[in-house]
Design brief:
Blueprint: E1 2-6, E2 12-17, E3 27-28, E4 35-36, E5 61-66, H1 71-86, H2 93-111, E6 114-119, E7 125-127, H3 140-148
Helix pairs in contact: 1-2
Length: about 170
């Protein structure tokens, strides 16, 4: 499985490859040099699918599709093709062939999209793993509930914050 680690501010820190069958006790993050200790307890279910986040231990994960980077370009072309069709230029055989090719590319883009799991708590993105059917899409209610709960992130994921300046005393 591949895990994209994020710090407490949501910025991408690193990408780590783990073998869920071997369940390593420690993983070194190359970019920071710090160690991450995966929480494997009850994280994998009987069907070898991820049930809980191994980074923070959160039990709330959601599934999403990882669309290829060409997707925005295909969407713009599809919108352009719709405008061409509404203007009546789709009767031309060349335009019709281009619209059919665009439809094929659009369908392939959706079919080739891979599913990922994302942790509501720490924002870790899991890919190259088996996604169970019980993982649903993102839900606002779950995200708000998890955001209200206090969460202790591993030391390797805590963002370094600059100390805030204190206001000068005695100045009016």
């Amino acid at each position: 499985m591949r895990i994209e680690l994020r710090d407490s501010n949501g910025r991408r820190l690193s990408r780590v490859e783990l073998d869920e069958r071997a369940r390593p006790a420690r993983v070194q993050i190359a970019e920071t040099g710090q160690d991450l200790f995966p929480r494997w307890d009850e994280a994998i279910d009987d069907a070898a699918a991820l049930r809980k986040c191994v980074v923070c231990g959160c039990g709330d994960l959601y599934a999403r599709k990882s669309l290829p980077q060409v997707t925005p370009f295909v969407v713009v072309l599809a919108f352009s093709g719709t405008v061409v069709a509404f203007l009546g230029y789709a009767a031309n055989p060349i335009v019709f062939a281009l619209l059919a090719a665009l439809l094929t590319v659009d369908a392939l883009t959706l079919l080739l999209a891979k599913r990922q799991l994302v942790c509501y708590g720490c924002g870790a993105v899991y890919s190259s793993l088996r996604v169970a059917r019980y993982h649903r899409r993102w839900d606002r209610a779950v995200a708000e509930r998890v955001a209200k709960e206090p969460m202790e992130l591993p030391a390797a994921l805590r963002a370094e914050r600059a100390p805030e300046k204190s206001p000068e005393r005695g100045q009016a």
